[in-house]
Amino acid sequence: MMLHYILIILYICASINGEEVQESTFVISLNDTYSNEELYSSIINIQSKSKTHFQFTNVNKNISFIVFQMHSHLYNITMRNETCFNNKYRACETLTGTNVGLFSTTEPISNMSVTNPNDLDLKVLIAVHGYIYDDPVPGGCNLDGPIEIPAFVSTAASPHRDYISVTAPAPSPSLAPNMCEQSLGSLIFYRLYLPERDFSIDTYFAGIKTMMSYSSVLEHGEKIPQTHPAYVRRTVSAYPGTGAVFAAVALFATSNGSVTTPRWSIYVPTVTYVCSPLVEGDCMLLGDLLSQTLCASLLFVGLFVCYFGHKFFKTEMFIFGMLSGVVVTYILISLMAEMDQTPLIGASFLSGILFGFIWLTFWWFYGIPVFSVLLVTLTFGFFAACVLYHQIPGGLIMLLEDLNFWTLFILVMLLTAVILTPATYPANILCCSVLGAYAAIYPIDYCLGSNLKYIIINTVRRATVEKFHYAVLSPPFEKNDALLILVWVMLATTGFLFQHYHNRGKPPFPPPPRNIRERPEGYGSITPYTRLGDSSDPPFRSTVNLRSNENTPLLA
Fold first, then answer.
1. Quick one: which of 188, 114, 109, 116 has its CA closest to 153?
2. Which residues face 115 on adjacent strands?
3. What is the pLDDT of residues 197-232, one digit of tens each?
4. Which neighbouring-strand residues pair with 102?
5. C-alpha to C-alpha distance for 316 and 310, rounded to whole angstroms
6. Residue 381's pLDDT band (boundaries 50, 70, 90)?
7. Three-state SS for 147?
């Protein structure tokens, strides 16, 4: 008897503490004027732990099917088709996510519902788009998946968030049966960038609304060229922290005698930040202390090289040797082993220090300016090739092959070095100014959330990330990027003029710190001067006891 009472008490407590899901009904009239396929659009508030039913009434008689979509900012919602048809559709279809949408015919039309399982109220953008019988059905030729007609675009980031795969199932030319075998149309993908580091809900909804209608997509969206073998998929480079809206357009042509009429339909657009703004620091590329420290140090190293690199020539040799070693080691280790970011960067940095000392030792013994500056010009050529890759139009089929791409990349790198090397003295100052200025703005770029840092990152991705050759770069360019480019140009210009003015009237290059030759002859050495009219040769001046430091070579 006592056990019976205990069970009753536990049941009452569970009933009291249990969360009841509130239900409500929202009626939508679809008898609006048929214009641009949009029948209804609104932003509504859905309470926490609630379920809202949507009923469609007064359906426009010209409409044969609809796409009902819902968009929530950051928090997932669950959308469900409450009307299940026997022998035509699978069991009641359910979608969970932030950008969801379901297809329904209008005879009969399905009733939809949305559930907010979160502990807070959500603002949700809902829209209904209607299409006639001859319009293509988005996702109508889907061959697999839990949703029979998935009329939405889906995105998936690579494991290390290097690229994004964008997918939209194949469309059907119309509602007519057995139309999926025809290939009369195309599937076109578009992308719209949101402002950098702007995670506000107003910007989020504004971006989605822009990519909902066909005319607006053509006006504001950027077409993504096909590089992946599957025409239902696109691959784009990822820029974490910069929101991107992806939409797909099913475009078919219907013929009526001699008249060809284009027909289209829009998939439900989706938004991705390639990170979660709800998780602190998740949208920052540098998540560990070592990476942040090394990145911050680039500001001071870059300013030093930009304004004093040629004056302190031995330090310049060490810095460029170290940077070259870091890049080469990072790529080689990434290709040979799987490592976390912190040990990978640490190993690359230690290897870079070794490379720097090796290159400094080369100058110590030989001190040939042409050979010493060769590494600097090659680094500048590498950077020029990175800029070309960063800005090259996407979709160039010939560059999808690694052999073609790296051949062109190395050709640009070597050609730049060959052009600069003959003018050794001004070329060295130019390389120091441009590369030093870029290094100085690099940590600022991380703080502002702009995308100039991807000039180097995308090239390293191409070398180390599998399938990245499919990725279309097309980096975003906004106010912060333009501002940083302006700062970059100003630093490079003032750095070049400052170094050229500061070193005027001085030997172009210092002698090697250790002169192992008997006479200081040859290019780059300091030749003893004679007075005008003195026909006798001056006595040989030994350089064995000369002591050099960072200031004497170019100040002497």
1. 188
2. 51, 78
3. 899 999 999 999 999 989 899 999 999 998 888 889
4. 68
5. 7
6. very high
7. coil
Residue 136 CB neighbour total at 10 angstroms: 25
Q: 449 with 439: CB under 8 angstroms? A: no
Residues 37, 321: Cα–Cα separation, whole Å: 60
**Residue 173, token pair as written in the block:** 């030319």
More confident residue, 35 or 95: 95
Predicted pLDDT at 369: 75
Quote the pLDDT of residue 124.
Answer: 94
Q: Phi, psi (5° rounding) for residue 45? A: -105, 130
Domains of the chain, residue spans: 23-272, 289-502
Computed over its alpha carbons, how large is the radius of gyration of the chain?
32
Percent of the chain with pLDDT over 70: 84
Residue 341's closest CA among 220, 476, 464? 464
Nearest to 147 by CA among 79, 199, 198: 79
Distances from the Cα of 327 to the Cα of 318, 321, 343, angstroms:
14, 10, 15
Predicted confidence (pLDDT) per residue in 119-154, tens digit: 999 999 999 999 988 889 998 888 777 788 899 999
φ and ψ at 445, to 5 degrees?
-60, -40
Q: Are 65 and 137 in contact, with CB atoms under 8 Å apart?
A: yes
- C-beta of residue 153 within 8 angstroms of C-beta of residue 270: yes
Cα separation, 309 vs 323, in Å, equals 14
Q: Output the six-digit token pair for 169.
A: 């199932």
d(CA 183, CA 427): 56
d(CA 180, CA 122): 38
Q: What is the 3-state secondary structure (H, E, C) of 257-268?
A: CCEEEEEEEECE
- What's the CA gap between 362 and 550, in Å, rounded? 17
CA distance 62 to 264: 16
pLDDT in tens, 396-432: 888 899 999 999 999 999 999 999 988 888 999 999 9
Name the amino acid, one letter, at 325: G
Phi-psi region of 301 (alpha: psi -120 to 50; beta: other; left: phi over 0): alpha
Q: How far apart are CA 548 and CA 510, in angstroms?
A: 9
pLDDT exceeds cutoff 80 at 184:
no
> Which of the residue ranges 150-164, 383-397, 464-478, 533-547 would you say has the lowest mean pLDDT?
533-547
Predicted model pTM: 0.84
Q: Which two structure tokens, joined as six digits, stand for 106?
A: 């209008």
Strands 94-97 and 233-237: unpaired
Q: Which pairing describes strands 50-57 and 22-29: parallel, antiparallel, or unpaired?
A: parallel
- Residue 169 CA to residue 151 CA, distance in Å, equals 8
* CA neighbor of 509 nearest in space, from 429, 436, 416, 430: 429
Is the pLDDT score of 523 beyond 50?
no
- Split at pLDDT 50, 70, 90, the class of 555 is very low
* Helical (H) or strand (E) element with 68: strand 65-72
69's tokens: 């979509």
